[in-house]
Design a protein that fits this description.
The strands form 6 sheets. A 5-stranded mixed beta sheet has the order 1-3-2-4-5, with helices on both faces. A 4-stranded mixed beta sheet has the order 17-16-18-19. It has a 3-stranded antiparallel beta sheet with strand order 8-9-12. It is α+β, with helices and mostly antiparallel strands. Helix 9 packs parallel to helix 21 and helix 19 runs antiparallel to helix 20. It is built from 23 helices and 19 strands. The protein is globular and about 85 Å long. Helix 22 links the parallel strand 16 and strand 17. One of its GO terms (biological process) is carbohydrate metabolic process. This is Thioredoxin domain-containing protein. It comes from Cryobacterium zongtaii.
Amino acid sequence: MPNRLADAISPYLRSHAENPVDWHPWGAAAFAEARRRDVPVLVSIGYATCHWCHVMARESFSDPALAAYLNEQFVSVKVDREEHPDVDASYLAAAGAFTQNLGWPLNVFVTPAGRPFFAGTYSPPTPMPGHPAFREVLNAVTDAWTNRRAAVEDSAAGLAEALAQAAPAAVGELPDQSRLADTVARLATAEDPVYGGFGGAPKFPAAPTLGLLLDRADGRELALRTLKRMGASPLRDPVEGGFFRYAVNRDWSDPHYERMLYDNAQLLELYSRAWMLTGERWARIVAEGLVGFLGAVLQLPDGGFASAQDSESTVDGVRVEGGYYALDEDARRVQAPPALDAKVLTGWNGLAIGALALAGHAFADDAALHLARRAADRLLQAHRRADGALVRASIDGRLSAAVATLEDYGMFAGGLLELATATGEVRYAVVARELIDRAMPGDGSTAGREPGMTFAAPEGADPVLTAQGLDLATDPSEGAYPSGLTAIASAAWRLHLLTGAGRYRDAATAGMVRLVGSGDINPLAFGAALRLVNGLTTPVEQLVVVTPDGASGRPVAAMAGSALLDAARRRTGVVAVVTERQGAAFAAAGFELFADRTTRDGLPTAYLCRDFVCRLPSTDAAALG
């Protein structure tokens, strides 16, 4: 039996390489083999730090008898959802027709044409209440395929057609401030008044929704309460500073101990902003701990950030979940830390770059800026092809064949824009604009184009999904982090605020109309989109502080020496601190916000604007109000 996973980019796939199951990686070859043999396909989706994925691998996929049955009756495909998020999104949408308990591992049974006809998540080796044994599931699927083929094919075709017609409706208009106020009120009623957070158990950080609340005066206290309680809870590792993915219990105890890059990057942004808004010590302590965690644990030797750290580890020779994190700092030194998923994802790295850049600006922290620069420069060197196209993923310098998604273009562009304004280095902003333009076919206008489709993944959807008619034109899924559409729209809106080019604002607005323009929107599921809508529908402050060219090598180094620069650290709109020479470079590159920005009397000088309507320049910190 060939081992097709041994050289995979994905550590998750490689962890299954020695299974007796005859696994195929995602690709057209697996479906061609299923057509040749006239058998269904098992598409099994997970990720490297997924606890129940590990459990099912040990219990079922390592069982020789069960593997022999799989090999005889199915073609089995293993997919890393982080490497192929569009595949995961399509099959998750399909799985919702068969189970309400969506999650991973996700096991979807499809026809050789790729059309799903049954799905489930974790299945135990022996029956449990509410959970048939995995062998029972396989027997039922085989029976249906063998004895009720016509019904299976009809059902699969109907589901495929329904999915194709389920794209978000391009109708309505952006939610106004009244609707957003109602949304905040709904979130307030969902708050756990004892332990913080939303709802009961399990309990997740809900970072995108907290961002919406933090940006709004009527939601800020709720966001700050939640962040403070969460930062002091068992969800946060007090030794290394990182947050775990979620907690099993309402009081944040019994975490699922995997630590994800996307969670920790988004939470760093929120705790940095919380400090900027309040000056509270607790917010700074948590933010600085997150900077330390990202640098010491998740940043790889080449500068990129690993996707996650595993929940399981070996402590004193025994493999346990969370055992490493129960140890204090000294005890950890003699144990091997949990493994990293060293897969570098462009989009998630973009989130980390942006958060570290913001923290570097807020705390005048050159170390945080250094971490962000290292990652950005590494990705620009290794994840951007000569023609400007992005790479979705890599590991140890090896590039994945998975196509880059809107998530990658949007999150990376957003991170580069944040880094550009924090460091004064226009090169990052220029590349960000090129990435956004690449994701906006044509001139970026909405004329003659379906509303909300201004943005498109430059390399197209996954080719296998496209051939099967299963690609989602717009993946609306959000929750733990922004959808690709929200990410690219957010970056385009920020680019508008730096350039004054209305086409970027219009494209962002059209995208959000498509995503949340009609119907009743769950704020816990669309927090990032609603946060962007809030920004699009309120006046935005823009602040440029210009320092003399000779004051220092970089403006952030002078932060502690100027009351004006200290005040700039606490502003939460679009803020850039540049030398005169850097400001001129931004202006020459077409970033209108920086045009004619010079110092007055050789002193740091502030230009405070609101939607490009600017006050007179001032050297007085009190003028910032």
